[in-house]
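Multiple sugar-binding periplasmic protein SbpA
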Amino acid sequence: MKKTMKAASLLLVLMLVTAMLAACNSSAGGSGSVSVGIVLPTKDEPRWVQDEQRFKDALKDSEYTTEILFSQGSSAKEKENVDTLINKGIDVLIITPQDGDAAAAAVEAAKKEGITVIAYDRLITNTEAVDYYVTFDSVAVGAAQGQYLIDNAQGTGVPLYLYVGAASDNNAFLFFEGAWSVLQPKIADGTFKIANSSEAEALKDTAELTRDQMSKILGQVTTNWDPNDAKNKAQTHLTAVGADLKGDVSVLAPNDGTARAIADVFASDGEVTSFLVTGQDAEKASIQYVIDGKQSMTVFKDVRTLVTDAMGIAVDILDGKTPVTTGSYDNGKKEVQAKQTNVIVVDEDNVQKELIDSDYYEASEFTGL
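Tokens:
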């Protein structure tokens, strides 16, 4: 009887020790858990699909693991993805929010579990549950787009068509802030005449816009980052204006997908004799448009560097180190420490140097180089 009790006691002790070890392994990110959880906005844009592979490659030679989920344009799916990753025991969450405000609830849930939150490329707003922000200088992107239109405009009274991203994306405001900072003096002095926004026209003498003032302009000219929305809006605008707002025109388009859609509309209007159109992201299709003279420029944001910066912060955290940052952004609740990556303007003159010679793309992927 005593031997049986001793054996039972020993078995119970062994079970308790095993359970404790399993719990320790789980909390420490042991086998079966995920070190870094990543949530990206959609698989429908080439940029994010490419980022998926780059994130995987960034950790392939390390001891850490990652899982990448896509929200497909849904904040509800985004929250579900974050919950899934929390349950897998992640230590770090890297997330590109679909909607900066709506993502707050998701990251607050992660923060409650002691997870470090890194906002990737888009800032999560109105919450204290964001630790770091990895970004390109979005204001500089917009300023580069606006400056390109200024540098290549001919004469005065040039019709200027304004288009922006989604009002739910804080970056759309930052891009427009940068563009307006350089375009506004040239609108005020008559170099440009705003063709498609009464709100912007009413504010043409205002150098620094408030958030509410920008919201009113964005409400008139948003594309929601959707090429179809951009196409429809451009068609509506060109139908509404007379010949005096056509001819040689300048177009501020927020990114490459919308730029191509808008360019196609302007190219099909017989009263538009020439147009300059901006973009950003250096998407492959837009680089071909630049080579073919259909899109004037794109702002190249080398996402290889952005991925490296994001994963660098994540690994520092996992290694118990303090990440190095280069600035901060006010998200409405706190100053979020940020790592900023530089941007490069690409047009037909330097496309070979910046995108082919740097091995970002292969020459064989294009015609007419």
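The domain at 32-130+303-341 is CATH 3.40.50.2300 (Rossmann fold).
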